Amino acid sequence: MKISMFKKVVLLTGLFSAIVVYSIQAQDLNSAILLTKSESYDKAGDMYKALIQKEPGNSKNYFYYGENYLLDYFADTISNSLTVATKAAKEIYEKGVSANPNDPLNYIGLAKIANYLGDEAKANELRAKARSFLLPYKKLKKISPPAKDYAFVLAKIAESYAKDGMVDTSVALPFIRQAVKIDSKNAEIYLTAGDLYMMVNDGSNAIKNYSLAQFEDPQSPTAAMKIGYVYVKARALQQAIPNFEEAIRLNANYAPAYRELGQLYWRAGRLEQSKTNFKKYLDLTEGNIPAKTRYVNSLFYAGDYEEVIKNVEEILTVDRSRGYMNRLAGYSSYEKENPDYGKALSYMETLFKTVAPEYILQKDHHYMARILLKKNQNYTKMADELNSLKPQLEREKSRYSTATAANKPKFKVTLDELTGKIADLESSVGKANKEIDRAFSEYEKAFNFKRTDPNSPMTPQERAILSEKASNYYAFRRYEGAAKTLAKLIDPSKENNLADYMQIGRAFYNGEKYKSADSIFSLVLKKSPDYLPAYVQTARTYYKMDPEGKLGLVRPKFEKLLSVASKDSVKNESEIVEAIRYLGSYHMDNGNYTKAKDYFNRMILLNPNSRENKIYAYNALGSLEAKAAGLEKTLEGKLGFLAKSADAYEKILAIDPANASAKSNLGWIQDYQVSVKKGINPNEIKGVVTNTAGQPLAFASVKIKDTAAETLTNAKGEYKFEIPQGSEFLVISAKGYKEQEVAVTKSRVYNIKLQQ
User: Fold this and answer.
1) Cβ contact 264:244 at 8 Å
2) Please, what's the b/e burial string for 378-410 (b: 16 or more CB within 10 A of its CB; e: otherwise)?
3) How are strands ordered across the β-sheet holding 718-722?
4) Structure confidence at residue 296 as a pLDDT band (50, 70, 90)
5) Whose CA is closest to 675, among 649, 642, 646?
6) Distance CA 2, CA 11 (A)
7) Which residue(s) pair with 686 in the sheet?
8) pTM score, two decimals?
9) Which residues, including other chains, have CB under 8 Å from residue 751's CB and lie 6 or more apart?
10) Separation of alpha carbons 371 and 99, rounded Å
11) DSSP code, position 733
12) Does 290 sit behind a cis peptide bond, omega within 30 degrees of 0 on the bond before it?
């Protein structure tokens, strides 16, 4: 009954002329092919099944049934699975081979499957098998199989080279040219040729071949539709419209044309015409869920994401078994103008739970990764806030412990608020970390989705996934992951790849994998001994490995950096300044004040126009002279150093009169000078710095926070010095011990225990 109904449709509309392919005679097969061309894949599939049951020995039925499976997949790669489609089509083609081992078409079908799955050797073997049935010929009249069939097989072999929207035309087009020489009247050959040209973005030759197909089969809407696609791809929407309208003129019930017009008008902003055409499409495909699914796909590609979600919900209300529709709803919730990442995640979670694993697509894992990261895009902000609140809590605890009984309730409120906020943030950051880790796991699944050999070259899509993964590793501060991912992307044969290696090294550096970072920077310097960025990063890396200079590793690296950078002091000013800052501070901390002064004076002279360099250097010199004053035993000697210190701060104020730090330090130096002249220290504090075992710590630093006021403990861990008026916190530090802040009170004795 169903078959006769479709016969009537074909006879009434006069849609297509008889398809001249491989000596097809049965009108029933023609009807099934017409359904395939009309994208009624479900109905076509039912008809192919009936034909196979009726004629199990007819290999052509199997070939077109297999084609129907593949075309159904490519019509909706969002909802369909390549694994499932190729498995089903392969089984059908194999049955076709069994039905007639001498029919080349089903071998070509199997070659397509092998090509899609990346087995090019098998694909070539199957193409050769198909060609073995095309016997050499001298005259077309005596060709075997007949010319029309021979030419069609050649066109299908050419088509079998297409994959992922790409094709090597140098291999495929010779088959087309041979096919045209044998049969220049076959519209199918020209359609195939046009498709191949479109894959290499040759719109002119595509239109030329589609026009030839239209000439050979003037009643078919297919060529007009394909010409319309060419103009759509070229963004020439006004030129596309007449071609889709021509397809409708040829067949008023040709549903795909209405869908394309609806999508095109939507893109052009002609919303009423878009709705009219989409309504016509839905009317023609009423009750056909796969057709509505393709309509939803059109909405998705048109960017009408709200309508996608609305229609998906309608479909799922009617048929909950179509769990794959959650895919488009999830994608759309992510892509829409006001994204709903929570809802997107919910749809995708439902997809993964309700759809069999073989129906999960590569892009499902890719979208899931993106959704999870976008959902947690505030992670770094939360982590930074958490890290800033923790030391604040410690300071408030210190204030609370030294507060009077009357003030303790006030500090308790602040403590409780901070403790609660930190607890909430720790919970949020913990949850976010789990979802972020899962996101990178999804990236890995997306990358490996089609890979069977880990050593095989990456496809452009796989490289894009890895590149995006590396960028997000950086954004979410998973620096080691970024480094390892970037390492996979690097091309060792590329001549100018130093920047690529540096990116990997910096990722290891940021991830605190300093030995790995050093090995990368060393590799760069072997490749290019004068590459300054590698010297910079090497020095920074060694500083991180030996921040206190105990191993003596850092100074030589900064000296080397200074030597290399000094070859061009204008171009490399920032690198020279970085080296001088470290080396000056290194020598000052180690008591070599003369050497330290040389470096800071060099910074002053480096660029006479640099206010920043001068202010930094004079501030360092002021601090250095103040330290020297603290170590000097005689009052006269102290005054000499203090005069030099005051002079340095005055020079800063000459450059920047509003410099608050210089004003404060100068004021402290001037007070110090007055005290020295009087021979008294009215603001003197003292104490002992020990470790937790009570052992004295020599050369521990005791300074006033945010000032230059500082002294060092003696061999017994004792210190004594004058502090500025209004000082709030002491900062005590020693090599190998945790820095500690202590609130300044009325007490003048502060004994400190430092933890390692």
Assistant:
1) yes
2) ebeebbebbeebeeebeebebbeeebeeeeeee
3) 718-722, 684-691, 752-754
4) confident
5) 642
6) 15
7) 720, 749
8) 0.64
9) 687, 688, 689, 690
10) 48
11) E
12) no
**DSSP at 21:** S
**H/E run at residue 754:** strand 752-754
Distance CA 223, CA 145 (A): 27
Nearest to 317 by CA among 329, 305, 306: 329
Side-chain-side CA neighbours of residue 285 (13 Å): 27
Alpha-carbon span 347 to 335, nearest angstrom: 13
**CA–CA distances in Å: residue 267 to residues 270, 296, 311:** 8, 15, 19
d(CA 386, CA 383): 5
**Strands 710-712 and 740-743: what pairing?**
unpaired
Instruction: Tell me the angle at which helices 255-267 and 271-284 cross, rounded to the nearest 10 degrees.
Output: 160
Are 92 and 62 in contact, with CB atoms under 8 Å apart?
A: yes
The strands making up 710-712's β-sheet, listed across from edge to edge, are: 710-712, 701-704, 729-733, 740-743
Q: CA separation (Å) from 330 to 9, 312, 325, 361, 367?
A: 38, 10, 9, 13, 8
User: Residues in the chain, how many?
Assistant: 756
CA distance 153 to 175: 9
d(CA 361, CA 333): 18
Round the average pLDDT of the chain to a whole number and report it: 89
User: Strand, coil or helix: what is 742?
Assistant: strand
pLDDT tens-digit readout, 676-730 = 887 755 567 889 999 988 899 999 999 988 777 888 999 899 998 878 767 888 9
pLDDT digits (tens, 9 = 90+) for 596-626: 999 999 999 999 999 999 999 999 999 999 9
pLDDT tens string 393-450: 988 888 888 888 888 888 889 899 999 999 999 999 999 999 999 999 999 999 999 8
Residue 387: per-residue pLDDT: 93
Q: How far apart are CA 667 and CA 645, in angstroms?
A: 11
- The single-letter code of the amino acid at 201 is N
Contact (CB, 8 A) for 585 and 596: yes
Structure tokens at 193: 């040729």
Q: Token pair for residue 501?
A: 């290696």
Question: Between the CA of residue 216 and those of 12, 16, 19, 160, 213, what are the distances in Å?
Answer: 21, 11, 11, 23, 5
Distance CA(569)–CA(608), nearest Å, equals 12
Share above pLDDT 90 across residues of the chain, in percent, rounded to a whole number: 62
Mean pLDDT for 320-334 is: 90
- Taking each helix axis from N to C end, the angle separating 460-475 and 362-375, rounded to the nearest 10 degrees, works out to 20
Query: What's residue 9's pLDDT?
Result: 29
